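Hi there. Long-time user, first ticket. I'm pasting a complex I've been working with (about 1124 residues overall). I'd like to know whether the download I got is complete or cut off, because the file seemed smaller than I expected. Thanks.
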Amino acid sequence: MTNHWVDIKNADIVLIMGGNAAEAHPCGFKWVTEAKAHNKARLIVVDPRFTRSASVADVYAPIRTGTDIVFLGGVINYLLANDKIQRDYVINYTDYTFVVREDFAFRDGLYSGYNADKHTYDKSSWEYETGADGFVTTDPSLAHPRCVYQLMKLHYARYTPEMVERVCGTPKEKFLQICEMMASTATPTRAMTMMYALGWTQHSVGTQMIRTAAMVQLLLGNIGIAGGGMNALRGHSNIQGLTDLGLMSNLLTGYMTLPSENEQSYSDYIGARAFKPMRPNQLSYWQNYEKFFVSFMKAWWGDAATADNHWGYDYLPKLDKVYDMLQFFELMNQGKVNGFICQGFNPLAAAPNKGKLNASLARLKFLIVMDPLATETSEFWRNFGAHNDVDPKQIQTEVFRLPTSCFAEEYGALTNSSRWLQWHWKGADPPGEARSDLEIMAGIFMRMRALYQAEGGAYPDPIVKLSWPYAQPHSPSAEELAQEYSGKALKDLTDPKDLTKVTRKAGEQLAGFAELRADGSTASGCWIFCGAWGPTGNLMARRDNADPTGIGETLNWAFAWPANRRVLYNRASCDLRGKPYNPERQLIAWNGSAWGGADVPDFKADEDPAHGMGPFIMNPEGVARFFGRQNLAEGPFPEHYEPFETPLAANPLSPTQPLALNNPAARVFPEDRKAFGKPGDFPHAATTYRLTEHFHYWTKHVRLNSIIQPEQFVEIGAALAKELGIVSGDQVKVSSNRGHIQAVAVVTKRLRALQVEGKTLHHVGVPIHWGFKGVARPGYLANTLTPFVGDGNSQTPEFKSFLVKVEKV
Amino acid sequence: MALQSLDIARRSATTTPEPQVRQSYTGTVAKLIDTSKCIGCKACQVACMEWNDLRDDIGTNVGSYDNPPDLTDRSWTVMRFTEYENPKGDLEWLIRKDGCMHCADPGCLKACPSPGAIVQYANGIVDFHEENCIGCGYCVTGCPFDVPRISKRDKKAYKCTLCSDRVAVGLEPACIKACPTGALVFGTKEDMQQHAAERVADLKSRGFEQAGLYDPSGVGGTHVMYVLHHADRPQLYAGLAADPHISTFVRLWKGKTKPLALVVMGLTALAGFFHFVRVGPNEVDERDEAAARQALESAQPRRPPPGAGAAERRP
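Hi, the file is complete. Here it is re-exported in full:
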């Protein structure tokens, strides 16, 4: 989230799209009801299904799954065409006036530089034009035909209300009603928040959907203000912490990135990430990258990380490609993986195309499953009738199950969607032989290190030299790890202006990342967490909910990264002179000599606004981007592409270019492409989702959850049910080109038949929670149906849009 | 079962007076269910099962989100989902938490023939004391909301207690504690009525012109109330009674009939007394004895089961 859960109460308009907060985040959803009850907020829900969120919405609009860019692009077109933008904000705080390179082009759904054989782009033309002064050229008059405003206007002029109706199936009046409601927040005193989750991320164009939404928010001046923002609702209590701590295959902690194999030189690696300002007097905070990186390396390798060995740069793997979940299972399927440690993860259920997953796991020599529960993955080799029809005799994989403690049986910090690191205390001891994940991983490490120490190996240094300073090496404590990721001084730190003045003694915890240095004198395992365990102690354990200004800025509750800041980009809540746009909901203000207020300023604390520094200090531009430059795979402006399994024969926005039917920059493995189904065989659009009664594949092991949602079902619209002669309670078979499931039919008016490109299209809803382990009634894993393809950037699987056929059993 | 902090105001089938020393200075309590804030998450169902140590069967899906599909002896509250297309053509998904309404004038208590099996506390809560329940099912007949369920295990009646045990010690009912959106609130009936008025005003500002509070007078008002978007049509919410009343049968039996019967009994006794004074005691001769013996013999095959003679318990 750019903002945080409590802040939703400040919204005037709440848009839930690409998510179903009432269903999947019922506790956080209370802030939507707060906004409605006490701020007269109006709730808009856009979803293929009339959801639990829709049941309490003021306006609901249906949309065909996978077409959100058309809808949101239509909103951009509406706002620009009707001049419903927050002009002052847009002109000063975005790249609206920036001029783009002359060789940049977009035609028939493809950007300049496309390589059709490799499904990739040469992105060199996707850049601003640079002037003689070395800075980006701008045109404040907006007349330049290649300024971002003109290009964007041209790009989205094609996204008319009629196009929205044709492609999304959303009735035009509903769409325009929603546009009008959103546009009401273009004034400085009204705010709209956007809440989304997997309904946007789990598409082959998911990242671009989110970008389109962010562009809408920028046009309306809704980023950086109370009650606004782009608010990703994370699906698991610590999934925010997972990405923060770099548990993606291409990440280091704090959103630093691993080097690629052509970055063998340390200085090249740093240079490519420490962005220089693109406009005069901009902060470009990533210029400090080396301070974060060196401090990270000192935290991991301690004294072994020295200036001479570039802080242990050679210890880091250099990626030849991204090893995301899909890539890894593809390699496993090719027989290129021997062993797999599966920690708190049930991929047989959680990755797409169960058939492929079964086959892949069967090619492993060994599989280690660390989990509190007996997961499907840990018994992939066992025959469970139709629900897992495998022959154990044909599977040689040796499976080890290591029981772990459950979240309530351990203590430490969890990071929620609000970016709050909240310390929690354990409620009970784990049962039986269960041990914490920490203890198990430490045990594996200790044994591996002993082997490397005894036997050597090709390159034992990264393991043997890893810093392991814990009091009980086989069981590091949460306190020790928290102090490590927060960070400390390794030597006495002195004031650069007065070297006799010691600002931090050696060994002391640091107060924040501003203290980090690139000379090896500081260590911090995760720079964005720096200060969470500061010189005064564990700030994550704070529980003071005092809210002096009444807008939910509880600065003494837990610790929010970065720097305990609650609303990111909050400098943008003030005008050029530093005066809050909305005096009723002030986050920060300039008092003539410093920035301060209800929140921690996201800005240089003493920077006079008269000097023109932009509010988006992490961007080298100093402003927010409409033109995404080279940051994403598909192009600088989000463009609609159909899901990989689409009911349409052509992309209505570029009907003559077959390469632009689906995401042209997505990575698709050849065998998986063959496994895509065609609308002739599979005429119905399907989508998978969660139910409030269950959590993923865990709670089917829990009796209470199973009582309130006992058995697998699929949802079918009343019109389709009538066509197929299905009534509620019937057994139905749902097939994709990869397999089938059988479940009870719930016939509902909440799934409406949509008119798409002149044809009637039915959606089929497939809740995911059932499987062949647990106390709920056994069922099929829903991912039996889903296609093995991910988003072009994040590689998050396309679970939300695929094709099926429904039959009565 | 009764606690000192939980004075009983009424007991089924009992005539001994209730304690009257302590006064309720804060009035009666009420639970307010705001259907316009409810997202049907069923946290209340789980909290109810956890607090009351109930575990219903893991059932089946019967083609809807209603699970378990009905109230049972072990499911004292369930969510009922209704899809409704309004006159504008827009869909509404009306979700109602069903369970005991805790009527001010409880039909179950009136109908109950077992002394002390059903009580009403001074705070308004209507509670079943199962140790006194004889399983006759009259409470089921007496309830205008079809709430009590007779258990197949012990043949006793069960329903929501409004967590009388929690309320007695100053806690809110478990469902209220669990509700994530504030759709369930609990307090004095007066406060709940005020809160409901604010909610109704908000709903009217959103185009629900018929929004209102459901607190039906036919049962003297209830200690579980609903905020409804369509208060003019409660039936839309999975058949919520539009104008609930205690059934005529129960009303007659415990209403007009009972005092009437008492009067008849009194008159009979009085007539007997005067008969004795004026005519003297009944003398039994041989003819009478023979007739009585004959009548007894012919009646024997149809003799009622033992215990059925307790006239005050069976009409």
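A couple of notes from our side: Chain B has two domains: 8-246, 258-302. Residues 257-279 of chain B form the longest helix (23 residues).
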